[in-house]
Amino acid sequence: MLNVEILGGVGEYGRNCFFIEVNNQAILLDCGIMKNKQKTLPNLSTAHVEKLTAIFISHSHIDHVGALPFAEQLGYKGPIIMSAMTRQQLKRPYANTLVFPEEPSEEWITVSEKLAFQWGYSGHVIGSVWYKIRFEDKMIFYSGDYVVDSYVLRATLPQENEVYDVAFIDSGHVELHVQNKIVLQQIAEFVQEHSHHPIIFPSSFSGKTLDIATYLSQHTTREIYVDKQLQPLFQQYMETESNVQLENAAREVFWLPMKDVDTGLYFVAEQNAELYPQALPIYTGYLHREGQMDRAYQHFFYKTHPDYEDILQLSKQIRAKEIIYFHSPYPLNK
Question: Hey, where are the domains in the chain?
Answer without folding.
Answer: 2-175+306-326, 180-299
